[in-house]
Design a protein that fits this description.
There is one protein chain. By secondary structure, this protein is of the alpha+beta class. It contains three helices and seven strands. The protein is globular and about 45 Å long. The chain binds zinc ion. Zinc ion (ZN) binds next to helix 2.
Length: 169
């Protein structure tokens, strides 16, 4: 099932999500729907709050569906280490058409559980490090625009307000 994606402005995107405690068939179905929704939207990552579900779950595929081994499910993820710095263009399915150079760690390590509840640790560099940080941020109610300068962030917020007023958001 493909879910509609919640856009910036909805409270669920700026509220910390709840931990997952039940590793059951419902979670498996939700994760599979999240992949379907992410691929349909041509994203490389999706967090559950972006489909209106306030749970600590995200999916990532930096290969955009090309490499099955790149499919990642992170349940209850926590960034446990980060080093270096990269600045690259970043966007978000909840802020369509807005992209901005965003600072992130060059390397990030996440500790999470898989869909069965087994704990694992994963280190990513480059785009994967960016995705790990971006998606984990979502579960803490943080959007990428919070890593931009106030000037840049306010300019995006202003444009969104204008579009919302015009019924285009
Ligand atoms: Zn996002």
């Amino acid at each position: 099932m493909i879910y509609p994606i919640v856009k910036y402005g909805q409270a669920v995107l700026e509220t910390p999500a709840e931990p997952v405690v039940a590793f059951d068939g419902a979670l498996e179905k939700l994760v599979s729907d999240m992949f379907e929704t992410m691929y349909a939207a041509r994203g490389v990552g999706l967090a559950a709050p972006q489909i209106g579900i306030p749970k600590r779950i995200c999916v990532i595929d930096t290969s955009s569906g090309e490499d099955p081994k790149a499919r990642l499910v992170l349940v209850n993820p926590v960034i446990v280490a980060a080093e270096g710095k990269q600045v690259n263009e970043e966007g978000c399915l909840s802020l369509p058409d807005f992209r901005a150079d965003t600072p992130r760690p060059a390397r990030a390590t996440v500790r999470a559980q898989d869909v069965q509840g087994r704990e694992f640790t994963l280190t990513g560099e480059g785009l994967l490090a960016r995705a790990l940080c971006h998606e984990t941020d979502h579960l803490n109610g943080i959007l990428f625009i919070q890593h931009l300068s106030m000037l840049k962030r306010d300019s995006i917020k202003r444009k969104v307000r204008k579009m919302a007023k015009a019924g285009q958001w």
